[in-house]
Design goal:
- The protein is of the alpha/beta class.
- The chain has ten helices and eight strands.
- The protein has an eight-stranded mixed beta sheet with strand order 3-2-1-4-5-6-7-8, with helices on both faces.
- Strand 2, helix 2 and strand 3 form a beta-alpha-beta unit.
- The chain is elongated and about 65 Å long.
Length: about 260
């Protein structure tokens, strides 16, 4: 299984296609609804590219659909069925999205945040795979294992919860970084003063539970400090976020202490 076509030319498709090519896979074609994006990635990989789904070649071994969730079904419907293995890279879409359209299908989901211009090392990125046959599950295992040391077979139901957890751990956390950056910028301060704190927090949860690693006024529900900080926030939405997160942090800490007391 060496010939690969990518349906999509976004962040994940860019990084995964480059990595697969480096590991000996032949990327034969790139599709994107934006011809500009298709051309950029196609030229980077020295392969053909198109913005027309009807022009997708039918002789590849593997078709990797890496598009927005809302566009996935439409792409599947408009590509002529063939003998290749079709997989998507989405966290929240079940494997059954392929059922009416193709005989061989699966999922190849790497749990990581991707940007086009930020190179990533796939070696330690978890890959969660699924397929509708044992043969194709083994093929996906082999492909993922060529670029990652962390490959697991899971169900679509489990993958939904992995994606949900990832949204909390990555997307929501990054948005909190953005809020922090804005608060500092308003006072003429740089965001990089928080980087050692961010790094230490990330390092701590590598060896202990996030609940045990939690610090700050919300853990002990220090209302004096919390009221002072709330008074600094002028945006009502930020006040709501602060209060809701503080309440939830305290609930987690209280429940954890209760569970420890029972032991």
């Amino acid at each position: 299984m060496k010939k690969v076509i990518f349906i999509g030319a976004g962040n994940l498709a860019t990084q995964l296609s480059k990595t697969l090519q480096e590991h000996g896979y032949e990327i034969v074609q790139i599709y994107s609804r934006s011809i500009t994006n298709a051309k950029i990635l196609g030229e980077l990989l020295s392969c053909e590219y198109t913005d027309n789904l009807s022009q997708i070649k039918d002789a590849a071994d593997l078709y990797i659909f890496s598009v927005k969730d809302t566009a996935l079904q439409d792409c599947i419907r408009h590509i002529k069925p063939n003998n290749g293995l079709w997989v998507h890279t989405a966290g929240s879409i079940p494997i059954t999205v392929f059922e009416p359209h193709i005989k061989r299908y699966g999922v190849l989901y790497p749990l990581q945040t991707f940007s086009k211009n930020k190179r990533v090392d796939f070696t330690n990125i978890p890959f969660f795979i699924e397929a509708n046959s044992g043969r194709d599950l083994q093929l996906l295992t082999d492909i993922a294992s060529n670029i990652s040391q962390n490959v697991r077979t899971i169900s679509s139901e489990q993958r939904k919860y992995i994606h949900l957890a990832a949204v909390f751990a990555c997307n929501f956390t990054n948005h909190l970084y953005a809020i922090s950056e804005k608060l500092l910028q308003e006072q003429g301060l740089p965001f990089d003063i928080l980087l050692p704190l961010i790094q230490e927090t990330a390092d701590k949860v590598k060896g202990m539970s996030p609940v045990a690693a939690q610090t700050g006024p919300a853990v002990r529900y220090d209302e004096n400090v919390m009221h002072k900080q709330l008074s600094l926030l002028k945006d009502e939405r930020l006040k709501d976020i602060y209060q809701l997160l503080s309440q939830n942090i305290h609930i987690f800490a209280t429940n954890s202490s209760y569970e420890q007391d029972k032991l």
